[in-house]
Structures are given as C-alpha cells and as structure tokens.
Design brief:
Layout (H helix, E strand, L loop, with lengths): L1 H29 L3 E8 L2 E10 L8 H10 L5 E12 L1 H16 L3 E3 L5 H12 L15 H35 L6 H11 L4 H23 L8 H39 L2 H7 L4 H39 L4 H11 L2 H27 L5 H32 L3
Parallel strand pairs: 2-3, 3-4
Antiparallel strand pairs: 1-2
Helix pairs in contact: 2-3, 5-10, 6-10, 7-8, 7-10, 8-10, 8-11, 8-12, 8-13, 10-12, 12-13
Length: 405
C-alpha cells in the first residue's frame, strides 16, 4: 500500500504545484507592470505605477521612460503614485532607483511620500550598501628600488618580531629552569610521542631513500676508477654531517611545525588564547614552551635514527650494484665516520628542532581571526622553517670550516 501511495501522492503534489505556478504565470501575462505619467499642474509630473512588476514580464525601461519627462523644461518636480499594484520584485526596485538617480542628476525633485514602506526600505538599503566597481583599477608600476625597499622592510619587520618572540621564549625557558614555570608531565609525554615516535615511519622512509640515492650516484662515478669501496665513506659522512639533520628538519617542518602553527592558529580563531590570558595563563609558558622543548629534545634522536637508516639504504644500494659485501661496507663506514661527524649532525639537529618549533608557534600566535588565515599561517610557517634551516646549515658549514671540525 505504501508503494502505491508514494507515486500517487507525488503526482498529486506535483500537479498542485505546477497548476499554481501556471496560474501565477497567467496572472503575470495578463497584468504586466505599467508606468504612466501625466502633467497634473504647472511644473509637476505624476508617475502612476500599477500592475505586477516581475522578471517574467516586460516592463518599461527607466531611461526611456524618464527621457520624455526630462525633455520637458517646464517640469520641476515628479510625484510617484501607486495605483492597483498587484505584486512586485526586484524589477520594480531597480526601476525606481534608476528614476531617482536620473532625476537627481537632472536636478529634478522627487516626491516619494506615496511609496509603500517595504519598497522604501529596500531603496534606502541600496543607498547604504557600498558599490563595488567591476572595472580593474590601474596600479602604478613600482620600480626595482621600491620593490627592494619594500622587501627589505618586510624582512626587517619579520626579523624584529621573531627576535621579540625569541626574547619572550627565552624568558619562559629561564623561568622553567628556575622552577617558576611547571609543565604537566602527562601532556608533555604525549607531546614527546607525537613529535618523536609517530614521526619515525616518515623519517625512516625518506632517510632510506636519500641514502639509496646518494649510494647509486656515488657508484656511477666511483666505479669508473675502481673505487667502489669509497661509496661507504660518501654515504656515511654525508648522512652523519648533513643529510640526516637537514632531511629530518625539513620533514619535521612539514609535519610538526605545520601542526603547531595550525593548532595554535585555530586556538586564536576560537578565542582560546584570549581565554587563557584572561584566566592568567601565559601563552608562551602554556602553549609554546612545551612544544619547543619537546621538539628540541626529540630532534637529536630522530637525526641519529635518520643517519643510521640512510647508511642502511646506502649499504643496500651498494651491495645491489657492486660486489662489496655488508662486512666490507660496515668496516669502511666505521673507518670513515668519526665522532666529530656524529656530533656535528646532532648539534645541527638541536638548532633545527628549536627553529622549527619556535617559528611554528610564532606564526600560529600571529594568525588572524579567520579560517582562511589558518591555512596561510600554516603555509608561511613551513616555508619560513625550511628557509631558516638552509640558512642555519650554511652558517654551521662556515663556522665548522673555520674551526676545522
């Protein structure tokens, strides 16, 4: 019974709706919008509006209609009257607005006391809304000096804000060392797991592939001289000193730094940061300090893990493409890599982790109060972190070369 009822009920309702639609359309066809004018007295023209004004029907154009009135030099005022107005929509509103605009430009007074209250409110609302020009605005082309000056000023202001944030963070670290600021142990342990243990799979995958690539490239070159044994030296030293720390820093920039910026930025949008400050909690001590400490502590471990996995990938590629055995590869790696190489990578990773966490938290706190700005903040945090890692690595390379490390 229910199966039969549904199509019958559907047909009944559809017929009712379509019938009312066509009946309404018929009314529109029979009673189109009408606008007539006549001269009532000396210098006064009366415009009578009647019928149904709808987008379904033809209606007079305001420019053509008012042109004949404006041509009468004796007309000084126009009165609007509404006689037997059946219905209207935005067409009538646009018609009246155009009439008022044309009359104003031609210094003709308009008496709109008889305009219905609903139409009058819509006309007043249209006057208060801003008008956006669709034409492209011409912009003055900036010179290379103006562009360089703007870029330099932007870099200076960004560096100034970052140094100010670093000062606040260092104050929070000193307070933590003195015991004035406490970090909740359970939440800190969960944060260590998020930034450390959960990052092991992606770090292992990228590091293994990087070691594999370095080994394959080295084999192609060294095999020409019969020096395949030195592939272990290149892979071991490059992974320990450079690639382990850099690749880990870049991975954590896209994974953890972006997460810090998005999380804190969302808290700013939801007014959670303001609520913390109102309750007497410092955003630096409560939000930034635990994240910076967690990533700074876990980065050396991730770097060591990345270096080991990279060397393993290089060993697999070497054994696959040469006649070296795993024992020969391990012995050569042990002779080539020393503790200085290991500690150079560890020191770099500590600074990289500190930079990634600091930049992510700073960009998150600088987020504007909109959902769109959260995405912009996250992207800016990742790009800035990667750029800072490369610049810091170049500085370390120069300093270590000076000291012969």
């Amino acid at each position: 019974m229910a199966v039969v009822y549904f199509p019958l009920e559907f047909l009944r309702r559809f017929t009712s709706l379509s019938g009312s639609y066509f009946r309404e359309k018929k009314i529109f066809d029979n009673m189109p919008g009408i606008a007539e004018w006549r001269v009532e007295s000396e210098g006064v023209a009366i415009i009578s509006i009647a019928g149904t004004w709808s987008i379904y029907e033809k209606h007079p154009h305001a420019e053509e209609f008012i042109e004949t009135i404006v041509s009468k030099s004796s007309i000084q005022r126009i009165d609007l009257t509404f006689v037997d107005l059946k219905g209207w929509d935005s067409v009538l509103i646009n018609f009246l607005i155009r009439i008022l605009t044309i009359c104003e430009s031609n210094n003709l007074a308009v008496n709109g006391d008889n305009i219905p209250i609903g139409i009058r409110r819509l006309i007043e609302l249209s006057k208060t809304s801003p008008v956006r020009s669709t034409l492209p605005t011409s912009k003055k082309k900036s010179t290379i000096f103006e562009f360089a000056g703007g870029a330099g000023l932007l870099i200076f202001l960004s560096l100034k804000n970052f140094l100010g944030f670093m000062g606040k963070l260092h104050g929070g670290i000193i307070s933590f060392i003195r015991g004035k600021v406490k970090i909740r142990g359970q939440e800190f342990a969960v944060m260590l797991q998020d930034v450390g243990v959960k990052a092991l799979p992606i770090v292992a995958l990228i590091s293994f592939l990087v070691g594999l690539i370095i080994a394959f490239v080295s084999v192609l070159q060294l095999s020409q001289f019969g020096a395949n044994i030195y592939v272990a030296d290149l892979v071991g030293i490059s992974m320990m000193r450079e690639m382990g720390s850099i690749m880990t820093g870049i991975i954590m920039s896209g994974r953890t730094g972006a997460a810090f910026a998005a999380t804190i930025g969302t808290m700013v949008v939801n007014d959670e940061v303001d609520a913390l400050q109102t309750a007497g909690f410092s955003s630096i001590d409560f939000l930034v300090l635990p994240r910076v400490l967690a990533l700074t502590l876990m980065m050396p471990l991730l770097c060591a893990f990345s270096s080991f996995i990279g060397i393993t990938g290089g060993a697999c590629a070497t054994m696959f493409s040469t006649s070296l055995t795993i024992a020969q590869y391990c012995i050569q790696t042990a002779h080539a890599v020393c503790l200085n190489d290991f500690f150079v990578g560890i020191i770099k990773s500590c600074f990289f982790g500190f930079l990634v966490a600091t930049i992510g938290c700073q960009k998150g706190l600088q987020c504007e109060r909109s959902a769109e700005d959260v995405g912009i903040t996250t992207t800016t945090a990742v790009v800035t972190s990667i750029t800072a890692i490369i610049i810091m690595d170049a500085i370390f390379a120069v300093v270590f070369s000076w000291f012969g490390i």
